[in-house]
């Protein structure tokens, strides 16, 4: 591996362990980033408390180039994203290349105008990323509220009641057995029995 390759790094992030990072990894490799220099976090982009990102930061210096596929892979919060951009480019002195947005390439036009344009576009894109993220979550919340208003049951359906539940419930209701004994007979925690008994009472 050449000295130049050792100075090239890539960062990828997916929000959950179920999401696939392949597209990002392929794009980074196509830009010439060695696999050993690619850092991947499987965490939300809400903050920068990410172990691999922290490891990456320690590697960066004025001779480094950091590739990311898109600006939202670095982060979603406009304030935090701008701060990390400043740390990487100003404190570390490294360059950043956003693959999906070629104009965000700090290697280009190292003059005052070039820096101004890059920072301006970053501010716009990071604001859009944060706004889109908030909009998605707002729509999800509105969708859940609307579904509940229509009487749609959300979450997992409750397990069927045991065959002996009615008989045990009647004994418990009549005061013949205490809650703990009733729960034991239907193989439930006491709190679950009380909850299911409340629902059963309303349904009968």
UniProtKB/TrEMBL annotation:
Ranges for domain Resolvase/invertase-type recombinase catalytic: 7-151
GO biological process: DNA integration
Active site (catalytic residues): 15
UniProt keyword annotations, A-Z: DNA integration, DNA recombination, DNA-binding
SUPFAM superfamilies in UniProt: Resolvase-like
InterPro entries xref list: Recombinase_CS (IPR006118), Resolv_N (IPR006119), Resolvase-like_N_sf (IPR036162), SSR_resolvase (IPR050639)
UniProt keyword 4Fe-4S, yes or no: no
Any GO MF annotation of the entry: DNA binding
UniProt keyword annotation of DNA-binding present: yes
Domain of life from the UniProt record: Bacteria
Gene3D superfamilies: Resolvase, N-terminal catalytic domain
Cited Pfam families: Resolvase (PF00239)
Family: Belongs to the site-specific recombinase resolvase family.
UniProt-recorded name of the protein: Site-specific DNA recombinase
Species whose genome carries this gene: Butyrivibrio hungatei DSM 14810
